[in-house]
Amino acid sequence: MTLDQLYQQRILEHNKDPQHFGPLPEATHRGRGLDALCGDDIEVALIVQGERVVDAQFSGEACAVTKASASMLMSWLIGRSITDIPEAYEAFRALLANPEARANELLGELNDLQPVGAFPARRGNACLPWQATLEALAPALGKSV
Amino acid sequence: MASRAATTAAPIDLGAIRAQFPILTREVHGQPLIYLDNAATTQRPIRVIEAIDDFYRHTNANVHRGVHQLSVEASEQFEAAREALARFIHARQQREIVFTRGTTEAINLVANSFVRPKVKPGDEILITHMEHHANIVPWQMLAKATGAVLKVAPMDSKGVLDIDALVELMNERTQLLGVVHVSNALGTINPVTEICELSQQRGIPVLVDGSQATPHLNVDVQALGCDFYCLSGHKMYGPTGIGALWAKAEHLEAMPPWQGGGEMIRYVSFEETTYNDIPHKFEAGTPNIAGVIGLAAAIEFLEDTGIEAIAAHEMALLDYATDALSQFEGLRIIGQAAQKGPVLSFVLDGAHANDIGTIVDHFGVAIRTGHHCAMPAMQFFGVAATARASFAVYNERHEVDAFVDALGRAQDMLKP
């Protein structure tokens, strides 16, 4: 896996111009993704109505991989049922763990992050926005994560 | 720009130095390894590796416990290492050297055995804003358990300790001052001799975290005037998992043991135990014998090469790298004290430290990224993380060039 595959155009674009980046004052659920060792500290803010995510934003400071992952994830989350998210996270982790894995239809654009899996020291960055999301949703999902 | 007094040391033979470090011949991602993460841990010269190998092949036995030949030889080598370390840091007596797992354990020993028995609620422990977590967290734990208060002396925007403010924080309730000799995150060399003098005038004992100092500075614990000096083997070309506490003998005599077990006792019955003499009183259990012997080999390497020559070489690299990095647009060096160890911490606009670390790694360059176990220092500078290049005796100018090229590539890739 080469460096260019990690820092591919899509990831760099999301890093420079992240989508759904900024505050969401009306959020119903919030979760923090903190990786102090790397210097990543983000907040995921969601508006959930019924079981559906109707808006998602992230904020904070993070590396390109975390930012790109968060940017893609926020777009992906909007319109999803919260009960589908833990399973999707498992699918995402499986995608990173296996460089040979085929793109998972469920994950859409998030498949573009698969090359991160070849950089073990950076997998945690790609997963951090998911963890913040699941922390935000823990009360709604009725269990701790 | 880092500046320092001129040295008269003869230049080192870099080829001969590098030949002693087998790891420097390996490649990373198809590129020659350029190892600039020396403040995290240095590499080991072959004599350290061979000393450990030789011990396990030919001498392995427990120390201070047997009459058989191997135990006698192992004990002799173990105590010879104590003597070497005592000489290296100019301790008055070798019984003032207590072997520990490293600096962290040495500080915890002082916290639990020296400070804790005498500290009362409202008493104070004084540290500085640039301490490593190892010289923060043990004191926080102690404060929480005893009702003592942790006081923090400030630094300025260059990462220089504010000595006047430090003195103002000293008072009759201060039970100990803990100060880092050379900051791992900023490079700052603190004026420890002056600090100790000011502290001793007020009757406050001083603990010095010397983990980043011993590979670069001539450390003389008596001239420094401190009470406790802590060091780690792996920062000074020795093995991991071994380090030491140096303390004035009168302190060690008065301190109760911290951990109980074998070795630290003279006599045990179920009714009563008599403790061993210092330093053995503080070395419960079978120690890291091979580590101690490897540490002695590392000290021999430092003495053969010469600390002054090592420092002169590293400082020339630091100056060269500082100049090169200063040419980068949007680059800010974190830690700009006039007196610095060979540590270059920086942030670059639009490029997160983590991404810089990954990109330069692909050009074979190993640097550290993150908070460097000094989160309060990072918070002071308003950054979550920095990238840090740190130099050792085996680094070369062309390695700095390669690092600077790789950093340029990172900046190009990540530019906003």
Kindly give the count of domains of chain B: 2
What string gives the helices and strands of chain A in order?
HHEEEHHH
The N- and C-terminal alpha carbons of chain B lie at a distance of: 28 Å
Helix content of chain A: 40-55%
Oligomer, anyone?
Answer: heterodimer
**Low-pLDDT windows of residues of chain A:** none
Helix-strand makeup class of chain B: alpha/beta
**CATH class designation of the largest domain in chain B:** Alpha Beta
> Order of strands across the widest beta sheet of chain A?
1-2-3
Care to count the β-strands of chain B?
17
Binned, the helix content of chain B reads: 25-40%
- Domain count of chain A: the total is 1
Residue stretches of chain B low in confidence (pLDDT < 50, at least 5 long) are: 1-6
Radius of gyration of chain A: 14 Å
CATH fold annotation of chain A: Sufe protein. Chain: A
CATH level 1 name of chain A? Alpha Beta
Q: What's the mean pLDDT score of chain B?
A: 95
Tell me what the CATH architecture of chain A is.
Alpha-Beta Complex
Q: What is the CA-CA span between the terminal residues of chain A?
A: 32 Å
Q: Compute the CA-based radius of gyration of chain B.
A: 22 Å
**What's the shape of chain B?**
globular
Outline of this structure?
Chain A is of the alpha+beta class. Helices cover 42% and strands 19% of the residues of chain A.
List the topology elements.
The complex is a heterodimer of chains A (about 140) and B (about 425).
Chain A: H1 3-6, H2 9-16, E1 29-35, E2 40-49, E3 52-61, H3 64-77, H4 85-97, H5 120-141
Antiparallel strand pairs in A: 1-2, 2-3
Chain B: H1 14-18, E1 27-28, E2 31-32, E3 34-35, H2 46-59, H3 69-88, E4 97-100, H4 103-115, E5 124-128, H5 137-146, E6 149-153, H6 163-169, E7 174-180, H7 192-201, E8 206-209, H8 221-224, E9 228-232, E10 243-247, H9 249-254, E11 265-268, E12 273-275, H10 289-305, H11 307-326, E13 331-334, E14 343-348, H12 353-361, E15 365-366, E16 368-370, H13 375-380, E17 386-390, H14 397-414
Parallel strand pairs in B: 3-15, 5-6, 5-7, 7-8, 8-9
Antiparallel strand pairs in B: 1-2, 4-10, 9-10, 11-12, 13-14, 14-17, 16-17
Helix pairs in contact in B: 2-10, 3-10, 11-14, 12-14
